[in-house]
Amino acid sequence: MRPFTYERATSAEDALNRHDGDAYYLGGGTNLVDLMRLGVETPARIVDVAHLPYDQVQLNPDGGVLIGAAVTNSALAADRTVREGHPMLAQAVLAGASGQIRNMATVGGNLLQRTRCSYFQDIAKPCNKRDPGSGCPAIEGEHHNLAILGHSQACVATHPSDMAVALAALDALVHIRGRAGARVVPIEDFYRLPDDAPERDTVLDPGDLITAVEVPLLGMPSRYRKVRERASFAFALVSIAASLDVVGGLVRDVRLALGGVAHRPWRARRAEEALRGAPATPDAFRAAADAELAEAEPLRDNAYKVPLARNLIVQTLTELEETS
Amino acid sequence: MDSEATPVHADLTLVVNGREHRLNVDTRASLLDVLREDIGLTGSKKGCDHGQCGACTVLIEGRRANACLALAVAHDGAEVVTVEGLADGERLSPVQEAFIENDAFQCGYCTPGQLCSATGMLDEVDQGWPSAVTADVSTEPVLDDDEIRERMSGNLCRCGAYVGIVAAVRAGARSREAAEA
Amino acid sequence: MTERLESREKVTGAARYAFEYPVENVAYAAAVQASVGRGEVLSVDIEAAQRLPGVLAVLSHENAPRVDSEPDGELALFQSRTVSYRGQFVAAVIGETLETAREAARLVRVEYAAEDPDVRLRTDHPGLYKPDKVNPVFPADTELGEPEAAFTDSAVRVDVTYTTPAEHNNPMEPHTTLALWDKDGSLLLYDSTQGASSVQSTIAKVFGLDPTQVRVIAPHVGGGFGSKGSPRPNVVLAAMGARVTGRPVKFAVPRQQMFATTGYRTPTVQRFRLGADPDGRLNAILHDVFEQTSTVREFAEQTATPTRTMYQAPNRRTSHRLVALDVPTPSWMRAPGETPGMYALESVMDELAVVTGVDPVELRVRNDTDREPESGLPFSSRNLVACLQEGADRFGWAGRDPAPGVRREGRRLVGTGVAASTYPAYMQPGRAIARAEPDGTFTVRIAAADIGTGARTALTLIAAETLKEDIDRVTVEIGDSAFPRASVAGGSSGTASWGTAVVRACESLRGRLNGEVPPEGLEASADTSAEVKNRDEYARHAFGAQFAEVEVDADTAEICVRRMLGVFAVGRVLNPMTARSQFIGGMTMGIGMALMEESVMDGEFGDYLNRDLAQYHVPSCADVRDVDAFWVEESDPHLNPMGSKGIGEIGIVGAAAAVGNAVHHATGVRVRDLPITPARLLPHL
């Protein structure tokens, strides 16, 4: 690990002032310290933002919630409002990592996790995300748990966060403070597809600080479900955040987002489109899933993710339909 | 000399198992390494150094955490409890006792982390925190074996003592309740 | 039922492991790994590393002390320019702090002349050869009768190929050494090892010392599962660093580096042919194994050896073919040979059961034998059938519908499977000393290891029983090469080997005790070399049967092992509490083998890619549900004074087959390549 200076910011302004463009903000450190120890990240200056006054989950007048960026994953999942109004968000957070890590990890940091692609994590290998222009060995190499949607010739990584998948389904808004002031970015615009610049996971500019995530009222049953290679404490093969509102046997509203399939949480808008107004039946769910996955381009060894994602969509929507 | 290469040090106060330690540490040092190498409390273990095994689990401000992922400098002033601080003098905690009675370990290397994790986890349940296997997250969780297994999954045990660990946590939870009642 | 004697130390954090001995002025080592898969080191640029304040030394082939690594090429640390596999240690830094050493190691620049590594195990590899022997001393090939012809002529034939991936031991405690040189030229090592005596003799040879000049201390070891059965490069690195800097040096191999430098189980490709009559009675067994070793040192896993022991058949063949690839050196991992071999044999037996319609338990009973089929020797005891029957009773096997893929509970498919287990009852020579102290207590010393097996406790029980004393009055001290020489904790031979030495020393002491113990105490020692050498000719093996019930999500292919039950015949069980933990622990590792463990070789770069505990999945607490183990009464007079067989490894043997067979029963899909992941199973559901 490269030596670094450590400073504790006392306010957002203070954090922005301390950030020299190359500094790293530190939240819970559960991914940053991991990556620093691997040599993947080599900050010379760390500004600790975990103690900023963004550690509350607040109920908004419209019934949504405003989640401070320094709220820990555990606190978010334990929050009564979230558990009752947005169960898929609590479930997504609880599906990630371990109890210990959730106690440390913050909401802001969770959003900014880096991919767990093996090549990205090994500084002795090429990786366009870590070292732009060096190549992507995963395309021909080991990629059984990498992307099937939205990937490019430059990068086939997936985004590792569970929480972000639920936030994508919930139309969450990311509150950001930057040099030019405050702005709010919808989470779908917050994350990028890799294109030819996979080194950028998000649209954040250097020095930008996430202060909060705003989640609008949902008002329908929701669920997060994650498939992985062991029963707990593993990243997703495919995960799904879903909510469904059925009236008179017809789908009035639906939200679907997939994890583990793309460079960003994958909002399944085509499937949603196909379902609105359609009968809430397994056949319709399957047709909607197929519509979404028609554009999937699996790699040599991850084609199984296509039926896995399809079956998960059908299974989860069917269960939501049965319980609603 | 290359200034970039020069380690940066910072003053730090930690209260570990009730005892205050004033230290000057490399900013890169993990809480785990400071506990083990500087303070001499080697009970907390290093199994992976990346938050992937749980052997380093300690309680920071009462909450279980991976000491290997915690920069010591970021925890100035924190209260930390390690496995060395779980017993009340010579009297083992109910969870420690239950680990012995249920043979919940073999090599013992993951054990300090398991014990701190179980201790923190039982408090999380007391606070009503749900888990990934809580069927309805809006309700109060009940600590059955599935809940124990899920909540203890951040602590790997390669000897495969999980059956004993689950039994021990179950028993420890019971005798803890009895002691509180 | 005796609790582990070191329990209190282990639950309070007082038990010290190798890295944790307080020594003055200690320095820290960090290693640099080769970033090419094959080639030569051209240059090592240490300038940037040496500029860091607190760097004490940078070691590489350019300046490392010469050592003698004749016993094991992996210990020839920094002795040549040759890179034999990616991840091999090519340099190391010794620094004042861990942070400095690791950062300096990152800054060491090594230039290579690189060649493309040859890392893919395949059955048509031109480099395949027949090894002189397989681990430890078995013939590579065996043949009886006319197996090919008999197979062709059999009424029922099964001809299938199973593969198992590379798997890494991953003990929770990394391989660790703390090395201190004394002014008199002697070397003290606190080491994470399964055998203090063997580290002592090997390292003495490497550094050109007399064994009496090396002392190895290892009272607590955080698991090994075979990977700490012989010294690994970490020992040489720490000792070399300590010699060069004149400081005590400690080195724990980072988890990521363990995947290249501390051993693993070879991948295997196993072709099985079973020929049988319509009732399932075997007529021919052919088991042909392909596996890898490195170019540094040959390790030939004895994968087909259990096939030589398990079932009757007049015509039989086993073979092992090896290829030396540019890969890390494979080595022992829990039940080497038996684990992959019995996975394949017990899976193919299940296939034969399906083909013949014979119940899988009954099929194994029908092919039981009272003589070891290939050696012709009588078994000292063989209670496979008793294990199968008691297991079937306890599990509720009777009335099982054999039809695969028909039991649905909602979206879940449910099935059950059975497999047999076996492991040899080895015994190694060794020595022990027993002392009567003037205060009426007793001390027994032996350089044995307790890597979590419960050895310390078992040996204390054995000593107390022999001395006819209360266990509280007997102390057994282990884990120090200064004690009488002991064999490695491996091959499930520890308790049998060390226990025999302890019994003989204690018997001898008892014989000399008549009344008062003199002030200086009374001592007796034993050496079991002759006793071990002169054992009668028997086939000595433990047996067992494992049953598993799984549910498979038909949509996602997620597999949950709902319950698992093992019944074992292992002679006399000395301490039921720790024995049960050993069996269950092995079965738990078997669940990992069946469902998740796989070290992925990168074809381009030539290293095991998923080199940490987030990517290499071992079972978590949530994966292990209702797992239990029992044993049948077995009295065997041909074993050792305790009447015991080893128990550390048999729990994993057959476990993966039981799970795989249950997956087949649940789904109708036979996955013949481990592990059975959603990626492998879902496309067939």
Automatic annotation (TrEMBL), chain A:
Domain FAD-binding PCMH-type: 1-220
Keyword terms of this UniProt record: Oxidoreductase
GO molecular function per UniProt: FAD binding; oxidoreductase activity
The keyword Chaperone is annotated on this UniProt entry: no
Source species, domain of life: Bacteria
Keyword Oxidoreductase attributed: yes
InterPro entries in UniProt: CO_DH_flav_C, CO_DH_flav_C_dom_sf, Diverse_Substr_Oxidored, FAD-bd_PCMH, FAD-bd_PCMH-like_sf, FAD-bd_PCMH_sub1, FAD-bd_PCMH_sub2, Mopterin_DH_FAD-bd
Database matches in PANTHER family: OXIDOREDUCTASE, XANTHINE DEHYDROGENASE SUBUNIT C-RELATED
Name of the molecule in the record: Xanthine dehydrogenase family protein subunit M
Organism (species): Actinomadura syzygii
Automatic annotation (TrEMBL), chain C:
GO molecular function: iron ion binding; oxidoreductase activity
Domain Aldehyde oxidase/xanthine dehydrogenase a/b hammerhead: 12-116
Keywords carried by this UniProt record: Molybdenum, Oxidoreductase
Taxonomy, superkingdom: Bacteria
Keyword flag Oxidoreductase: yes
Signal peptide coordinates: none
Annotated InterPro entries: Ald_Oxase/Xan_DH_a/b, Ald_Oxase/Xan_DH_a/b_sf, Ald_Oxase/xanthine_DH-like, AldOxase/xan_DH_MoCoBD1, AldOxase/xan_DH_MoCoBD2, AldOxase/xan_DH_Mopterin-bd_sf
ATP-binding is among the record's keywords: no
Listed SMART domains: Ald_Xan_dh_C (SM01008)
Name of the protein this chain belongs to: Xanthine dehydrogenase family protein molybdopterin-binding subunit
UniProt organism field: Actinomadura syzygii
Biological classification of the source: Bacteria, Bacillati, Actinomycetota, Actinomycetes, Streptosporangiales
